[in-house]
């Protein structure tokens, strides 16, 4: 068979080439780190940089971690083990005041001789392995090591240069030596010409920052700290810029598409709804309402994020937007993160609409529509009916959980997508629902977790933002106290307090982190628990975390508590069926069961105006934003509320800071700022959104606000001038790479 000439396969671009071509010996090991191509390896930035004689690094080790440590050998001893036979070599490595023990076992002394010779006192090197603890002493068992040999350089000048270089220390896995990564990177880098590595940062954006080739040298083989810092800054900016360019492009792409205009209609559902609202809209609700009305009436899709303090009344704002769309002949879908919340939204809308929601029913109003609920656990008959109403258009308003995203759900004319509590969803899910409209629907995303601006820019950068800051007038005060968990008298007083509130017609939530006491079951039910490992990494010395309170046990216990004699105590958690959950919530709302022991399923959105007390057990284990959300469940009516955070939080701990701040303020934005300071970087985006974590390696959303801001301005300018990035193929490629990484991570999580 002959192969036609033009079928000769082009080699893939340099960055896509397999590492096997260049470093065949290391391929398998590098693959364990997820590094397969030249591009992967070059973008595998060092974790840190060290220098000969650097100050301490041993202080921050935790057991089980794979670490690479610099140090100098202090002493080395070989002895025979009487009990087990064989010999043991113990080498103590010192770095500043700290020491680390390296241990080798062997049958015969001869097998250890090689190590003994290499690790003479005074030897400087890098040592890596998994940290273990034996009799209170941290050690590395059979570690890998690389000895520094400053004498090996040809002349004094060279040696001086080398000794000043910050040396890259990479994240490693067992069996992979730092030196292997170093030499693989160098091998690949040596073959580089600038033409091989197109720079995602266009010249005009880059300004005085180093180009890609120099920057790669700056992180992998810097001459000095200045060069390294400039390279790191550049990559930080690049990450922010690539992300902002994608967000700007997304935004521009949607904006360029036509949406069906859904102008308000006088005498329609919205007017009727407004006429029967039992309260006055706040100024903020009115203002944002007008803005949404205008945007819905336009021929390009609305893309808006509505941030609002807990209890600021976002649901009404969304309902009014949905009704405008229904008045204009379209459908609106409301996506909620939990079944409890979806059911509650449907109920709220039905109540607020009254006969306006009874289209086709006897006594329904002329202009009426229907509110249809769709959740995953509905029976098949209910589900079929719902699907029919949605597809046929009878359902003007569709409320649902993830079930709405299923391919079986088809809309007659979807005009508006509302996503409630967006922090529980990913961008992909938002897009799946949007794709169910014939054209591009309008989009309203709501979140009650106040998001610091830098995070909002990173996660929701494609949306315009509106903020509801005020909480409706007449909203009651809520006082918050931290109750020490180890004081039984205080707890007794807490139950007493519940009793008093119940006697006055109030309701109380008691929140637990777990469903039942069986520690083996993964039953934390959405609780976003914090693990406050001591900052010095000395996890071994800390007492084991105490078992968390569990709904089933606490409910049982409260039923037997004298203070609550005669008071019905209910339960609510994720393992109950939807009917059971509905009933529990209905009984609580009506007051038949005025004490509800619950997991964090009540965290988002649950709205029972008579609830006045909230007790959170193990409050020290919850994050700030979750506690803020939980507390938002009380004080929603006219009566003042009290929130009791039962916690084991000794002074000076992060937990104490969190709880102290919560007791001090109810301003979600202030709390979000504290939260951001206390949280570890990875948690911030991880909790907020899927994906974004993998593509941000150098950028720190918590600290690099100014970088993000600059990148955003530059990216918007560039995208405005070149919406398809036709002139900027390298940037386009970098965006595709980022998206591929996010998709991968998203798939991993589902
Ligand atoms: P969130 O913004 O946290 O989602 P909701 O939309 O659940 O808050 O509203 C909280 C409560 O406030 C609901 O009971 C709602 O009916 C009520 N509410 C909303 N707007 C107003 C208003 N303008 N005046 C009085 N109460 C209001
Ligand atoms: Mg809400």
UniProtKB/TrEMBL annotation:
Q: Which PANTHER family match?
A: ATP-DEPENDENT DNA HELICASE HOMOLOG RECG, CHLOROPLASTIC (PTHR47964:SF1)
> Which GO MF term does the entry hold, naming one?
DNA helicase activity
The answer to whether keyword ATP-binding applies is yes
According to the entry, every stretch annotated as the Helicase C-terminal domain falls at 490-682
An example Gene Ontology biological process: DNA repair
> Looking at the record's lineage, which domain of life comes first?
Bacteria
DNA damage among the record's keywords? yes
What organism is recorded for this protein?
A: Cellulomonas pakistanensis
Q: Which Pfam families match?
A: DEAD (PF00270), Helicase_C (PF00271), RecG_dom3_C (PF19833), RecG_wedge (PF17191)
Q: Where is the Helicase ATP-binding domain?
A: 295-468
- Output this protein's name: Probable DNA 3'-5' helicase RecG
Q: Which UniProt keywords apply?
A: ATP-binding, DNA damage, DNA repair, DNA-binding, Helicase, Hydrolase, Nucleotide-binding
Which InterPro entries does the protein's record reference?
A: DEAD/DEAH_box_helicase_dom, Helicase_ATP-bd, Helicase_C-like, NA-bd_OB-fold, P-loop_NTPase, RecG/Mfd, RecG_dom3_C, RecG_wedge
The UniProt transmembrane annotation reads none
State the taxonomy lineage. Bacteria, Bacillati, Actinomycetota, Actinomycetes, Micrococcales
């Amino acid at each position: 068979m002959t192969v036609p000439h033009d079928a000769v396969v082009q080699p893939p671009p340099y960055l896509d080439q397999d590492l096997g071509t260049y470093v065949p010996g290391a391929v398998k090991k590098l693959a364990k780190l997820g590094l397969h191509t030249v591009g992967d390896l070059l973008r595998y930035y060092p974790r840190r940089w060290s220098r000969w004689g650097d100050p301490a690094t041993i202080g921050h080790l935790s057991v089980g971690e794979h670490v690479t440590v610099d140090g100098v050998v202090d002493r080395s001893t070989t002895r025979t083990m009487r009990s087990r036979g064989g010999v043991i070599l113990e080498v103590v490595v010192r770095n500043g005041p700290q020491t680390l023990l390296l241990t080798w076992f062997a049958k015969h002394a001869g097998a250890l001789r090689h190590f003994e010779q290499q690790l003479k006192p005074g030897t400087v090197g890098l040592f890596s392995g998994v940290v273990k603890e034996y009799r209170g002493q941290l050690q590395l068992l059979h570690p890998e090591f690389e000895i520094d040999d400053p004498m090996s350089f040809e002349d004094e000048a060279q040696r001086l240069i080398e000794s000043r270089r910050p040396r890259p220390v990479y994240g490693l896995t067992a069996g992979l030596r730092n030196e292997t990564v170093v030499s693989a990177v160098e091998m690949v880098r040596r073959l580089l010409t600038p033409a091989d590595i197109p720079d995602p940062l266009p010249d005009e954006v880059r300004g005085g920052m180093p180009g890609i080739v120099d920057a790669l040298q700056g992180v992998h083989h810097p001459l000095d700290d200045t060069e390294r810092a400039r390279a790191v800054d550049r990559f930080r900016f690049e990450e922010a810029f690539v992300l902002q360019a994608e967000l700007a492009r997304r935004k521009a792409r949607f904006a360029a598409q036509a949406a069906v205009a859904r102008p308000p209609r006088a005498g329609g559902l919205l007017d009727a709804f407004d006429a029967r609202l039992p309260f006055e809209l706040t100024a903020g609700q009115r203002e944002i309402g007008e803005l949404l009305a205008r945007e819905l009436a336009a021929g390009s899709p609305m893309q808006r994020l509505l941030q609002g303090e807990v209890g600021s009344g976002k649901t009404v704002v969304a309902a009014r937007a949905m009704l405008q769309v229904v008045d204009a002949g379209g459908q609106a879908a409301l996506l909620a993160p939990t079944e409890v919340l979806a059911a509650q939204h449907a109920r709220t809308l039905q109540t607020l609409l009254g006969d306006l929601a009874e289209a086709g029913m006897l006594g329904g109003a002329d202009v009426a529509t229907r509110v249809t609920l769709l959740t995953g656990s509905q029976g098949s008959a209910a589900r079929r009916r719902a699907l029919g109403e949605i597809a046929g258009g009878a359902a003007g308003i569709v409320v649902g959980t993830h079930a709405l995203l299923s391919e079986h759900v088809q809309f007659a004319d979807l005009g508006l997508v509302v996503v409630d509590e967006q922090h529980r969803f990913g961008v992909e899910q938002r897009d799946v629902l949007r794709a169910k409209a014939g054209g591009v629907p309008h989009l309203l995303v709501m979140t009650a977790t106040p998001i610091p601006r830098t995070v909002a820019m990173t996660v929701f950068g494609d949306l315009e933002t509106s903020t509801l800051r005020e909480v409706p007038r007449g909203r009651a005060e809520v006082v918050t106290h931290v109750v020490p968990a180890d004081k039984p008298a205080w707890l007794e007083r807490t139950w007493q307090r519940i009793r008093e509130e119940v006697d006055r017609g109030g309701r109380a939530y008691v929140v637990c982190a777990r469903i039942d006491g069986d520690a083996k079951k993964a039953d934390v039910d959405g609780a976003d628990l914090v693990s406050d490992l001591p900052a010095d990494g000395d996890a071994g010395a800390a007492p084991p975390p105490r078992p968390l309170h569990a709904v089933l046990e606490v409910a049982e216990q409260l039923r037997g508590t004298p203070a609550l004699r005669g008071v019905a105590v209910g339960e609510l958690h994720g393992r109950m069926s939807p009917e059971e959950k509905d009933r529990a919530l209905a009984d609580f709302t009506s007051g038949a069961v005025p004490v509800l022991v619950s997991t964090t399923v009540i965290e988002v959105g649950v709205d029972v105006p008579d609830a006045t007390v909230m007790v959170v057990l193990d409050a020290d284990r919850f994050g700030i934003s979750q506690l803020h959300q939980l507390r938002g469940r009380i004080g929603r009516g006219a009566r003042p509320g009290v929130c009791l955070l039962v916690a084991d939080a000794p002074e000076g701990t992060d937990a104490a800071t969190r709880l102290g701040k919560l007791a001090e303020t109810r301003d979600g934005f202030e709390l979000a700022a504290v939260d951001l300071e206390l949280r570890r970087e990875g948690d911030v985006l991880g909790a907020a959104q899927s994906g974004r974590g993998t593509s941000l390696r150098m950028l720190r959303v918590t600290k690099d606000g100014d970088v993000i801001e600059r990148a955003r301005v530059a990216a918007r300018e560039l995208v405005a001038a070149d919406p398809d990035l036709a002139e900027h193929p390298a940037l386009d490629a970098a965006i595709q790479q980022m998206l591929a990484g996010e998709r991968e991570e998203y798939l991993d999580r589902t």
